[in-house]
Amino acid sequence: MARPRIAILARFAESTSATRYAAIVTARRLAEMVWAAGGEPLTMLPVSGSDWADRLRGIDGVLMPGGADINPRTYGQEISSEHVYDVDDLADEADISLVKHALQTSIPFFAICRGLQITNVALGGTLVQHMDEPHQHHVAHVTIDKYVDELGLSTATLQASCYHHQMIDQVAPGLEVIGHSTEGYVEAVKIDAPGWAFGVQWHPEDNYDTNAAQLEILSRFVSEAASFAAQN
User: Which position among 106, 107, 158, 179 has the lowest Cβ density within 10 Å, counted as fewest Cβ atoms?
Assistant: First the structure.
């Protein structure tokens, strides 16, 4: 059977050695994790005014990846921290438009780190612009309180590899918090949508090949994408 096709919205890079110029990128570990879970990772270009109904034809799942900071103006604030970095309004616009479209359909949807944050913003929530104790190069102890089976997990406690200095502040309508770190931070959510839709604040791609729980989540996402493909 063909691998389910997983759309990953690209991130912008100022330069890469392979391209010589500015580039669109998908983290190699992220693409490899999707492949390891049985999916076909496909990088999509962020552009203004996308017709997502057209662009997602033949796509079986949407993965919103990590990336740079979101412009606080998208959630009604001005930049108030010197630590806010690499803001790109086109990236924010493309992310928000894709999130809003995908969550109105039954396509399986999974959000990671910035992907979770932009989902929260797209649905009306806000962010902490800079945490008092950033979770960069940090392993968080996370407990999943609900939907353990729906996430495909064999355990409700995870060692989560984190790299973020922002986090959810006000939780948007349509997001149900289902996992916390020991510090009490929001680490996982269920998203109100017609299809399978979840988000996590950590980076499962960091240790999916040494921590079984990380690949379990992605395998469930890809399995849902396969079911979606079979029905469409």
Answer: 106
Assess contact for 173 and 158: CB atoms under 8 A.
no
What's the whole-model pTM score?
A: 0.95
Residue 89, H or E segment: helix 89-102
- Domain count for the chain, please give it: 1
Domain that holds residue 190: 5-231
Q: Is residue 9 within a helix (H) or strand (E), and if so which, with residue range?
A: strand 5-9
Domain of residue 212, CATH code: 3.40.50.880
pLDDT at 198: 98
Cα distances (angstroms) measured from residue 28 to each of 9, 35, 47, 141, 159:
13, 11, 22, 25, 21
pLDDT per position as a tens digit, 52-88: 999 999 999 999 999 888 899 998 988 767 776 778 8
In percent, the amount of the chain with pLDDT more than 70 equals: 97
